[in-house]
Amino acid sequence: MNANAQTPALDTVPQPAELVARARALVPTLRERSQHCEQLRRIPQETFDDFRDAGLLRIAQPSQFQGWGHGIDTIAEVGMEIGRGCGSSAWMAGQWPGHQFMVGYFSEEAQQEYWAQDPDTMSSTASAQARVNIEPERGGFRVRDSQMRFSSGCDYAQWIFFTTQHGMGLIPRSDFEVLDDWHVSGLRGTGSKSVVVKDAWIPPHRCVSLADLRMGSTPGSKIYTGNPYYQVPFNLVVNQLLLAATIGMGRGILDLFEERVTKRFDLHTFKPASEGAGTQLRFAESAAEIDAAMMFIRNNCVTLAEWGRAGHVPSDAERARVRRDVAYATRLSLQASNRLITSGDASAMFDSQQLGRLARDINMAGLQANLTWDEPAQSFSRARWGVSPLSNLN
User: Fold this and answer.
1) What is the reported pLDDT for 6?
2) Does the pLDDT value for residue 4 go beyond 80?
3) Other CB atoms within 10 Å distance of the CB of residue 281
4) Helix residue ranges, H only, 196-233
5) Which one, of 69, 54, 159, lies nearest residue 116 by Cα?
6) Which residue in 179, 94, 164 sits closest to 371, CA to CA?
7) At what angle do helices 87-103 and 234-261 cross, to 10 degrees?
8) Above 90 in pLDDT, residue 274?
9) How far is it, in rounded angstroms, from Cα 96 to Cα 125?
10) Residue-wise pLDDT tens digits, 53-101
C-alpha cells in the first residue's frame, strides 16, 4: 500500500447516519448559495470546502487511502438530502465521492499514484464523445486530439476517467485541458465542461477493460473483497448516484411547494392556497411518487449489495430490471416535480427563485442518458422475452 496512506481508526470513521445528518445540516446553506452556484457555472469553493470538511467526499473511498470505506448506498442517501438545497451541488455530492469509489476499480499501483499527494485528490469523468482518437500502445492506449463533453466538476479535477469502447483509463491533469463550453439551461453549477486531450499515453496499470467493469471483475474487486459494490457491474452502481441527485431535486421542489402553499392565497378563490382541492391532490400524488422513487433506489442498492456479497453475476434480465427501475424512478421524480411546478405558483418563472432553479435542474438531469426511459424500458422487455438487446449498456 501507499506509504503515505493511513487507515483511519475505527472510532474516527463517521458512520452513514452521521454523514447523512451532516448533509442534511448543509441544506439551508446550499439553498442560500444556489443562485451564486448557478451564476458561477461551477460549484463554489465554499461548497467544495463544506463537502470536504463534512467528510462527504470520502464516503466510499477505500479506507486504505484514508477514506471511510462505506458503500454507494450512503452516497445515494447523501445526494437525496443535498438535492433539497441545490441541484448542482447534489449532482456533485454524488459524483465526487462516486469518483473516489471508482478509483478503487483500478490496480493498486494506479491507486497509489492517484492518492500519492493528497487523500482528497479529485477527479471527473469523460465519456460523452465529441471526437476521439485512441489506439493501443505498449499495453495501454495513446490518446490524441480528443474531446469529451459533460465532465462534471472538472474544474476541481486532478485526474479524469477517460472512457471509450476500449475501457476506462485514468489521465492526470497535466495531460488534459478544460474547455469552458458549459452554457446550458439547467445544472449550470455542475461545471460540466468539455475536456481536451491533445496527446497522452495511458499505461496499462491505469486501464480497466469494459468487460471487467461489466462483470464486476476489475483489479479492485480482488483488493476490496469486503465492499460488495466492487463485485457488481459498474454501470448499475454509478447510475444510482445520478438517480439520487435527481430524487433529491424532486424532494427540494416538494419542500418549496409545501412551504409556499401554506403561506400564499389562490388568486381565483382568494382563499389560502392550501385549501384548494387541486393543490391538495397535486401535492399528495407528487409526494407519493417521490417516496416511491426513494424506495426504488434503496431497493436497487440492497439488491446490488446482495449480489456482490453472494458473488452473483446478474443475468441480462436482472441487469435490465435494475436499469428499468433507475429510469422509472427518474420518471416519477420528473412527473412529481412538473406537476407541482405547473400548479400556478408563478415564482417558478423567475431565474432568481429557487423553485424555478430546481425545475430547470431536474429537467436537465432527466436528459442524462442513463436516466432516460425509452431504451431501459425496451431493454427490460427484450431481455425478459429473449429478444436480442438494443445495446450493451446492461
Assistant:
1) 66
2) no
3) 12
4) 210-215, 219-223
5) 159
6) 94
7) 160
8) no
9) 10
10) 999 999 999 999 999 999 999 999 999 999 999 999 999 999 999 999 9
CA distance 269 to 258: 19
pLDDT at 344: 75
Q: Is the pLDDT of residue 188 over 70?
A: yes
Task: Give me the chain's average pLDDT, please.
Answer: 95
Strand pairing report for 159-164 and 123-126 = parallel
Q: What is the pTM of this model?
A: 0.95
Query: Is the confidence at residue 2, as pLDDT, over 70?
Result: no
Residue 115: band (very low, low, confident or very high) from pLDDT cuts 50, 70, 90: very high
Write the single-letter amino acid at 205. H
Helix (H, G, I), strand (E, B) or coil at 44: coil
Nearest to 62 by CA among 54, 72, 70: 70
C-alpha cell of residue 79: 445526494
Count Cβ atoms within 10 A of the Cβ of residue 2 and give its class: 0-12 exposed, 13-18 middle, 19 or more buried. middle
Look at residues 347, 272, 356 and name the one whose alpha carbon lies nearest to residue 87.
356
Beta-carbon count within 10 A of 186 CB: 21
| Cβ atoms < 10 Å from Cβ of 63 | 19
User: Rounded distance, CA 256 to CA 34, Å?
Assistant: 14
Among candidate residues 171, 55, 45, 195, the one with its CA nearest the CA of residue 103: 171
**Cell numbers of 80, please?**
437525496
Among residues 390, 6, 364, the alpha carbon closest in space to that of 183 is found at 364
Residues with Cβ within 8 Å of 246's Cβ and at least 6 positions away in sequence, in order, are 83, 330, 333, 334, 362, 365, 366, 371
CB of 108 within 8 A of CB of 142? Answer: no
What's the residue count for the chain?
394
Q: What is the pLDDT of residue 156?
A: 98
In the chain, which ranges are continuous DSSP H helix? Answer: 16-40, 45-53, 72-82, 87-103, 108-114, 210-215, 219-223, 234-261, 277-310, 316-341, 354-365, 374-385
List the beta bridge partners of residue 160. Answer: 124, 171
One-letter amino acid for residue 365 of the chain: A
361: pLDDT strictly greater than 80:
yes
Only one residue has cell 412551504, namely: 259
Following DSSP, what letter does each residue of 11-32 receive, concatenated? GGSPPHHHHHHHHHHHHHHHHH
Q: Which three cell numbers stand for residue 152?
A: 462534471
Instruction: Kindly tell me if the per-residue pLDDT of 391 is higher than 80.
Output: no
- In whole angstroms, what is the distance from residue 2 CA to residue 7 CA? 11
